[in-house]
Amino acid sequence: MDTSKLDQVVAQARKAQAVRERDYREQALKLYPWVCARCGRTFDRQNLSELTVHHKNHDHDHNPADGSNWELLCLYCHDNEHQRQLEAQGLAAPGTGAGPGKAATHQPFAALKDLLRNR
User: How many angstroms separate the CA atoms of 81 and 99, rounded?
Assistant: First the structure.
């Protein structure tokens, strides 16, 4: 089976995505101060790679030139925002960082009170 055509299509799609992302990221960095919109952490040229562009409506193809669908978030706040969205949609158990499933039942400090009492 010849996969060269498929490989070419995938390569073109990845290249187009990289160009699109670079363009809206550069625009957002020109529009907004280099500060995380959630935690307030400031960025400079040395750590700018840790500042990401978040799409407020979660549609990566909706990139108005005025930046109304963007906000700059640090890596940590960006991950948190997407985790919160998954939890709101019911696709992840709250606070687990995982998909649907059972919540943890292990209680590592269950006997702590007894241990401290015996000291």
Answer: 15
Burial of 78 (0-12, 13-18, 19+ CB in 10 A): buried
Q: How many CA atoms lie less than 13 Å away from 106 in the CB half-sphere?
A: 1
| Neighbouring-strand partners of residue 73 | 52
Whether pLDDT at 73 is above 80: yes
**Cα(56)–Cα(69) distance, rounded to whole angstroms?**
5
Kindly tell me the burial class for residue 117, based on how many C-beta atoms sit within 10 Å of its own C-beta (0-12, 13-18, 19 or more).
exposed
The pLDDT of residue 1 is: 63
User: Which sequence spans correspond to the domains of the chain?
Assistant: 4-94
Residue predicted with more confidence, 34 or 65: 34
Chain Cα centroid distance, residue 1: 37
pLDDT of residue 20: 67
Q: List CB contacts of 96: < 8 A, sequence separation 6 or more.
A: 103, 104
